[in-house]
Amino acid sequence: MKRIICDIEKCLGCKACQIACAVEHSVSKDLVQAIEEVPRPGYRVMVEYVEQMPIPMQCRHCDDAPCVRVCPTHCLTKEGDEGIVLADRDKCIGCLWCVLVCPFGAVRMRKSDRVVLKCDLCVDRQSQGLQPACVAACPTHALQFKPVDDVAKDKRLSAARELLASTVKPTASGG
Amino acid sequence: MGETMVTTKINGRETRVPIDTTALEAARSIGVEIPTLCYHPALVPYGACRLCLVEVKRPGHGGGRIVTSCTFHIREEGLEIDTHSERAQRDRKLVVELLLARCPNVELLQRLGKDLGIDKPRFTAQKQDENCILCGLCVRVCEELIGQSAISFTGRGPGREVSTPFLEPSEACIGCGACAFVCPTHAIEVQDLLQLRKLDKWGTSLQQRPCVRCGKFFAPEVELEKLSDRLELVKNWLQLCPECRREVAATDWIVGLRASPASPVRRG
Ligand code: SF4
Ligand code: FES
User: With a 6 A CB cut-off, is B48 part of the ligand 2 pocket?
Assistant: First the structure.
């Protein structure tokens, strides 16, 4: 199971991910044309700022996703091995319950036509063997698309390294 | 176990669909467009607007039958469906003319009329400002999906309309706005006036909940209560507006990282 992972330390707040996301979900998939499109193509990743630190936020594709549970039309579904939460726009009735219940505020509504926007992990691109648009666009590789197992392993490794560094005193020679 | 498939000819093109598929779905699945007004993929087909007429022929059984494609289920082999036959188009035109006589100023109907080549409808309109075509989408969405049944059809014949019980503000309306979203003619308006959510057509006026963090009124109290019951949510989950929830989640992330021994983000 692969997810978009963010190494916050590397995020510049350039919002290249936001733009790439909007372009990917536009009709033309071309930046110059996308700007002119009506309705305006919407992005599904939002760069938030906490004490001046930028943090890209998007759908976490929760295990027991509240949006999926609450959706009266089952237009939001979580299926398959990858467990991606997807929205079927045709079935949407605009109740916006998904927007109201998402614990991460990751589902938005486009004002102009009340269409619900949420991250789909770029399933279209994935089927062509490409990475999600935000990941491909991130200039510092703060955003990565990785198997979740690897993420846990990375975390264990860096925790172990940290522990080692704090316990092993440098030798007289400077180690 | 595979589904039983049946072969059907749509506008001369053979296609195989699972048994029980409606003629409308079958046509759309191969890219044939049939105009509709009262159809919504999330709702049970209703057959109210009669716009989706098609001609269905059973080979060897003479002339075709005109049916509403949204409610016509394909249950046998070899049916021949003509979505734009002369008869279907003629009847469709009549349907639009009648709808235009009810709602002469609804843009969507005017556009449909133009597409069907109606220059001047044969019937004169009684009222100029009617914009409800009685498709029932709002009634059905509220009952079938939202589960509130705040509105329903009342009256018969020319007196038929959609309204709340006894024309009083409905106690069942939670102000979700799904009715307004699905209405094809924009006959229903949802307004947010600070602490109030209003749907004037139904006389609804509901108190909205202010976000505990930013103070913005973001959704009707009754709607949020329904949602927390439905999800068995912890009480304070829905005290924050979605935007603040996003900011809080971002903050928690940083706080969590700083607390973790392996964190590179420990900056005091
Ligand atoms: S108000 Fe709109 S959705 Fe409801 S019946 Fe009339 S036209 Fe249909
Ligand atoms: S769409 Fe079939 S009758 Fe309205």
Answer: yes
